[in-house]
Amino acid sequence: MQVKPINKEFEKHIVQTINQKTKPVGSLGQLEDVAAQLALIQSNKAGKLVNNIEINKPTAVIFAGDHGVAEDGVSIAPSCVTRQMVQNFLAGGAAINCFCKSNNITLKVVDAGIIEPLNNDEILSPESFLSMRLGAGTHNIAVEAAMSLEQVELGLSYGEQAITPLIQNNTNLLILGEMGIGNTSAATAIFAKLTGAPVQDCVGIGTGITEEQLIKKTALIEKAVSRFDSSNPVEILQQLGGFEIVQMTGAVIAAAAAGISILIDGFIVSVAAFVACKIQPNTRSYLIFSHESEEFGHQLLLSHLNAKPLLNLGLRLGEGTGAALALPLLRSAAEFYNNMASFEDAGVTV
Amino acid sequence: MQVKPINKEFEKHIVQTINQKTKPVGSLGQLEDVAAQLALIQSNKAGKLVNNIEINKPTAVIFAGDHGVAEDGVSIAPSCVTRQMVQNFLAGGAAINCFCKSNNITLKVVDAGIIEPLNNDEILSPESFLSMRLGAGTHNIAVEAAMSLEQVELGLSYGEQAITPLIQNNTNLLILGEMGIGNTSAATAIFAKLTGAPVQDCVGIGTGITEEQLIKKTALIEKAVSRFDSSNPVEILQQLGGFEIVQMTGAVIAAAAAGISILIDGFIVSVAAFVACKIQPNTRSYLIFSHESEEFGHQLLLSHLNAKPLLNLGLRLGEGTGAALALPLLRSAAEFYNNMASFEDAGVTV
Question: If I label A209, which of A176, A183, A188, B145 is the partner at 20 to 30 A Cα–Cα?
Fold first, then answer.
């Protein structure tokens, strides 16, 4: 699957359109950037300049997976909470359910490999659920590879399969989220390995571990990162996991290859997006970064991606919550791009 | 009119409610703060703990006025643009119209004293328009008082009159915006005078003046600030204006006195809110700060108000645009407060 570069021939006209709106040039700040990016992505896909940005059936897909390293106590919660939260998503009770409801977003949940699969009677919204299990949690990355190369390849393909029906059904904005006790450890390890940055500079407290647990977590991640030698992003995924990160990487590449916009959540999803950009560098043009999370490494990661996110609310929850909260800003960006008067329309003195 | 202090007896229960939701404590960052503030304001008004936050008929009121100091060239645009933009608001073509539409907000426009009033045939949405003129623009504050004390008193009363019908119609969230060529000069002068801060530390480029114009603007504001001696907020309004700032001050006090939440926009509206807090210190508890604008003095002003705004998108447009963009975050805060499962509900291991 090949992600094509964005054709920039429409950029000049898009910027002109924005600059002729009845406001001082640049006065809508980042909202202008995101309007320009959406207009460019959609014009590129249409093969002609589109005068109206559309945000069609935006859908959040949450990938859930478990992590062998969690058995060493790198998180505030035990692995069983991943499964409980998947049930909570399907029952409509989690934060992401609330934000999808308030912002009119469809929600899908993927079991990418939690330890114990749900029974049929536990799947309260079967229409929102996909089982794409790569296993019963990854191996402990501090001691061995998270998964096999075959699992990585299957996982990238599952990521694509999870979103293809959405795109066929005209979704043109994909929101990614994740759930997985221990997954800041896997994400931090991947980020450190890909950039060569010291683990110390990338590791954070996740959803809220103590100073003592952070020291332990750092040591485990350092062990995982130094366990092997590679700069190949696919091999790094295999070594460090997790199942949900692999599948999100596949989903990002597939969405970019289909030419649609992807709204990225916090640290874990950003790491998957970073891996996707390493595999297919043209992917970057399709990514919109929703927020800077409280997770310590996120700021550094965003600077590696040359990304300036829309929100900075001190979130550290995951699930796609930051991305869901940012969606109304994209709708407002589309609305001003599509319907705000130009100086000429309004008879305003330039 | 008296703004009563918030009764904090419900605070402990509200924080407990938030902490029992299925998420790590504090992991929704500022969204938790705003949920707690809304729940507290609404419980205070109801006289009992409310289990559901309601955001009812949110309405943005834009106050427009002209400024004598604009004749000295402190802005990128001439004063006639104030009138043109009021027409643009009533025709539905401005940025604030777009954001009100995308975020389901009612819009009202008040002529607080633009130079030339609109003719009846220019008022395209009469149901959205209020004429509450205090004059044909203020006097030039660099040389004389902006207005008389009678005008200030009438303006504070007009601000109250503008919002009273909304509150009677069950609006429980007021959004304030403004339009007025030259009004960053008036707002900066008020802020500097009230705090004693050097004008140099408060003044900015507004919607985009040059370095040379900024030097001139700074000198004019310094002249205005040093022209008289007072620390009385009402007298400072009289001396420095403008009509829209006075009316917004009145609207803020009246909304707080009625016990409803007020969503504050950028620098100019924040100055009006700051004056309101100087007149009635209890007002502060009812204020939610939507965004930090690009205007240089806003950060300092927000620190004086001990405020951490929700957005920081590099906006410098006014009109209430930042506040309108922040409203969906309040709706999401209400949604999670009202409907997110507790650990007990969801059977999630604490």
Answer: A176
